Amino acid sequence: MTVSPSLDDRLDEAARAGDPRAAVSVVLRETYDAARARAERKLDGGMKGRDVARLYATAADDMLASLWRVATQVLFPVSAVESERLSLVAVGGYGRGVLAPFSDLDLLFLRPAKATPRGESVIQFVLYVLWDLGIKVGPAVRSVEECLTLSRTDMTVRTTLLEARHLAGDERLSDLMIGRFRDMVSKSDPRPFIAAKLEERAVRHQKAGVTRYKVEPNVKDGKGGLRDLNTLYWIARSLAPDSRLGARVMDEMFTSRERRASDDAFDFLWRVRIHLHLIAGRAEEKLTFDMQPEVARRMGWQGRGDEPAVERFMRRYFLVARDVGALTRAMSAKLEARHQKTAQGLSRLMTPFRPARRKMEVEGFWVDQGRLSVEGPEVFAADPVKLLTLFVCADRHDLDLHPDAFSAVTRSLSLVTPRLRRDPAATRAFLDILAHGQRPYRVLTIMNETGLLGRFLPEWGRIVGQTQFNMYHAYTVDEHTLQAIGIINDIARGKLKDDHPLATEIVQLISDMEALMLGMLLHDVGKGGERGQLEDGAIAARRACERLGVDPRRIELVVWLVRSHLALSDYAQKRDLSDPATIRAFAELVGDPERLRMLLVLTVADIRAVGPGVWNGWKGQLMRTLYNQVAGLFRGEDVAREDPLAEHPALVERARQTGAAAEAAPTAPVAGLAVQTTEISIAAADRPGLFADLAQTMAALGADVTDARVATTPEGLVLDVFRVQDGAGLPYGQAEPRRLKALVEALEKAARGDGRIGKAPDPTGNARKAAFEVRPVVMVDHHASEVATVVEVSCADRPGLLAALSRVFNDEGLNIRSAHVASYGERAVDSFYVVDGKGRKVASEQRIAELRTALEAVLDSRAPAPAGRKVASARASARDVSDLGRRSPRAKPVSPGEQAR
């Protein structure tokens, strides 16, 4: 029987080859890949994430030990001379004994003193082989003294050496360095190191995004990610350098429940990170949309009811991220108790002359270094209402919460019983924070982090960490809502007057801020419900308000706000505001001026809190127009059809003289938001197919339409206003002004019917958009307008979509009287007011059916993926595109609609 040669024998033979580096690389690649494959199989079999990470580290250990042996004993044999001593040490994350599939290998080549030719040869050979294997290496070559000297002042070096472990070579040399380093750390003041780690954490969060609830989180460096957990362990290790992974300190600082939470978080985040690497085939740390469905599938998540697997998985992710934040606060409390962390916080920096500790007016509360603290959990056990009173005091005195108080709240959540939820003193305290607080966003966010907000208000608890799998919303549902509450508070205090002048003016006229704030707090609690977002939200809002003891009249107002919170945005963006029927229908829905004021302020905050760049001046203008016209109707003024050409007199006059005229300008900027689009206005004599020709021209020249408004006067003149971007998502023409000039000239020719219109380029693959399955919907409403049929289309957005849709209307013999284009991330929602060749509504059911078939033929459910890449997809959560139709029972959806999310 033939015995297979051992790995050492194969490597020895490879070392004798003509090109030993290449030959050794081949042998090591085979064994290393096999070991990594075994780790991947263990992952698929359900092994815990941290254990799988250890298997990947072990695979690297074995590979490096073999490589070191062949380099130092076969190719460059060891010398007996003292200066030839050399060892290989794992440091950083690799030193901790965990690795993701494509993590860097942090290696320290340790020598006793000066470099030698043999040592240089060994190091060079090892590094070249690792690079040949495609491994990213973070190498350092230092002597023992250099390690110690650098680690005294460079906290990054100290961090990497805290987790140093011997890999290969002279073990006595490694032990010497590690022993002396740990001795130095144990005798050093730990505070500078702890301060440096916390500062690094703050800078990292600022770079990755301050909130931990961004819907495409960075698993490694984001807030609540692995790096935050590692920071806790680095701090613990600095306090007990001889303790394995700082275990002794962790046991002292955390309760058994917190240790379990830490272990669970490590395992979950490591599984996510390893799957990310394997799916991407590289060191990918960001959990982007195109990765989320596949990671969810690999981790075994399944949909439940109307909540798809990907949303359930992401909710779990954000709940883990919240737990990591709580662990950080718990450690901060213990460190301060040991005087090993300097208290930090804006309020304390601004008022440095406060006494170190003073009692508050509430028994058991006191201020410690400028932060609100409590004597202990027994304060809440004696009077559970103080769980809410604590946050009233924090807001009233503009104090951050001390980590001790934070931990005391989290450990007292069992005191939140049905009785406390109905206690008048507790509900009054909660409503004071929400509607009358100085900084409700900050205070409610801390309440949410402790878990108190979701425990006190169960309707809120079901949306904590909830995500919506779409590109429109940038944050989780709870974070979005809290930001919206903060925006209303900023509007009321005049901080956003330049961006929202009308909202800033009318918010002062609102007589019931509690109702408005309750409506904002509860507006999304119906997301994911079986009856749809609006109806389930209204039911949940009524239940919550009744429990809070809100009076019946106010309850009806809150319920109406929740049920109608999409109405103003929908009417403003999807309907023709120059049509008196639109204004009358919206006025009938609203009912009175107070509701109108509330709905405007709520809508502004809701849209602005969706994410960066979602709010823009165009939306603001549309909403102001709708508000002013409905307010006028309530004052008894007549609703007249507005002249859509009034804002562009010079352009219209030029069009009358030349047959068509176009002009372009950047959109008006909004403070804090970059200019996102270029606005192009075209005036021309109306004709069949005009809108289709203009849309086709823009598509052919690479202009992506993000918004559009089309209006036609009785005299037959049309004004089309488009907002466009280039393929990179920048304002069209910003990077290349000549392209914008060419587009304006081409649009004028197209409007006059001159020249040949090119074909729109095929959409390029986009992995993030390809992850979303958007079910196409076509809805027809004969009653929204007195003079036209309204056709609303929703589908996956793509360049050239508007041109394709408008061409369908033209081919079907229909004229577009008004068009309203909006995009919600991956989804386009376009509304068209159309008439037949005789200027009448489309009344024939057969013709409607034919139109539906023709429209569905050009609608996409999914964007294309990049060539050669397979992207797992999942159903996109959607604003219900039939909201307007559902409010009007006469509207008829001719394609199956999606459940509101």
Characterise this structure.
There is one protein chain. The chain is α+β, with helices and mostly antiparallel strands. A hairpin with a 2-residue loop joins strand 16 and strand 17 (827-835). The termini are far apart. It is globular, with a radius of gyration of 32 Å. 49% of the residues are buried. Helix 1 packs antiparallel against helix 2 (20-44), helix 6 packs across helix 7 and helix 34 (690-700) packs antiparallel against helix 35 (737-752). Strands 9-10-12-11-16-17-15-14-19 form a nine-stranded antiparallel beta sheet. Strands 3-2-1-4 form a four-stranded mixed beta sheet, with helices on both faces. Strands 5-6-7-8 form a four-stranded mixed beta sheet. The protein contains 39 helices and 19 strands. 51% of the residues lie in helices and 12% in strands. The model is unreliable at 343-355 and 888-901 (pLDDT under 50).
